[in-house]
Design goal:
The chain has 235 residues and is mainly α. It has 10 helices and 3 strands; from the N terminus they run ααβββαααααααα. It has a 3-stranded antiparallel beta sheet, with no helix packed on it. The longest helix is centred in the N-terminal third of the chain and has 25 residues.
Amino acid sequence: MKGKKGHRQHFRNKRATSGARTWLLHKIVSLVAVCVFHSLFCGVVLAGAIYSYVDKNGVYHFTNAPTDSRFSRVEINEKSAVLKGRGRRNLHRSRGLSGRDVQARVNLFHREITRAAGFFGLDPALIKAIIRAESGGDPDAVSSKGALGLMQLMPETARELMVYNPFDPAENIWGGSKYLSWLMENFDGDIIAALAAYNSGPGTVERYGGIPPYPETIQYIKRVLRFWKQAKNQS
């Protein structure tokens, strides 16, 4: 996965400098941030479309309410379900399953997802969307790059998050949600930047000043937003 080494070092440095913060303060910040995320997501649902353009520096910009003629509508369909970010997943058990079946498999972990979402101030539907995009709901998923479990945590990142068994659904969801919460805080509540960082690493997003011009990252964001909307509609 692009930026993985920088991803790990960046996370370690940030974790060290923010280690003195209390969990209470972290939870308050997360709860405030999630209000912003809900507002953004509601706009996506109501608008029914996402628009983007690429600036002169090759940085992608996304919105659900375009105010610039450079924005064009992003078409999202089921054929955009190919990911290359962390290598191919070991998802043989997902083959032949419909989108509804995959979502049903993700929903099997509703209790663990709800618990983590409540603690970290996240939308459970967003966690479900990331799990669906990352592993198709397969708790034993392993990518060719070594990412593990439902939320596809790299082994070193899992250790940093105190996830000792990445194949345990509860541990993996807790660790992935903790990491996502940190990313949202790090990017001031910008859900698009947080998703880009989850896929390509926070250092990469900061280096480009936004979404990096990686097709797999752009595809990833579109898929998660689509899955988020679907999970939200089912809740």
